[in-house]
């Protein structure tokens, strides 16, 4: 009693798959909480104070690839399966599509859409785009800039209805 854990979907899944043995997130997911400082690559003490969030309640932040935990026998999974990576969805798409250098762009279209490009550092956008930490490999951070469209799927359905009459 009296304990609370505050995390993202990945940290909750890790907690459940490890039966509470691990409570962690990676840098890409931490960067999306609005509680993460892109300059220090850690939870921002000023923001935690502003929102009255105790740092001890937050997931530990780890590189995107590396051993997070091992599964317990749950939901049909065998015990002892290593959980070796966690990364945000758009960030994983950028990595998986080879977006390793500034100037390369990935586009993901679905219910929502995302355009993301790697950046040389945490550069602030003057055009309403989000600056994020794309991934951290244990030695260095890769930053990115992203533009999101939240209603792509609904817009396609709307256009299809217009065309169909």
TrEMBL record:
Gene3D superfamilies named among the record's database cross-references: 3.30.420.40
Molecular-function annotations in GO: glycerol kinase activity
Coiled coil: none
Domain (Carbohydrate kinase FGGY N-terminal) ranges: 6-96
Pfam families assigned: FGGY_N
UniProt keyword terms in alphabetical order: Kinase, Transferase
GO cellular component: cytosol
Protein name per UniProt: Putative Glycerol kinase
The organism of origin for this protein: Pseudomonas syringae pv. maculicola
Record lineage: Bacteria, Pseudomonadati, Pseudomonadota, Gammaproteobacteria, Pseudomonadales
């Amino acid at each position: 009693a009296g304990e609370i854990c505050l995390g993202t979907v990945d940290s909750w899944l890790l907690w459940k798959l490890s039966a509470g043995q691990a409570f962690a997130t990676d840098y890409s997911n931490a960067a999306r909480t609005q509680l993460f400082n892109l300059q220090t690559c850690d939870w921002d003490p000023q923001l935690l104070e502003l929102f009255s969030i105790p740092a001890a309640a937050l997931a530990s932040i780890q590189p995107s690839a590396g051993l997070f935990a091992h599964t317990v026998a749950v939901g049909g999974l065998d015990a002892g399966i290593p959980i070796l990576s966690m990364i945000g969805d758009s960030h994983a798409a950028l990595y998986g599509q080879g977006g390793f250098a500034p100037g390369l762009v990935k586009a993901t279209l679905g219910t929502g859409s995302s355009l993301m490009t790697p950046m040389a550092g945490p550069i602030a956008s003057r055009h309403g785009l989000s600056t994020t930490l794309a991934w951290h490999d244990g030695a260095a951070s890769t930053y990115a800039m992203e533009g999101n469209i939240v209603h792509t799927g609904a817009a396609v359905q709307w256009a299809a209805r217009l065309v169909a009459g």
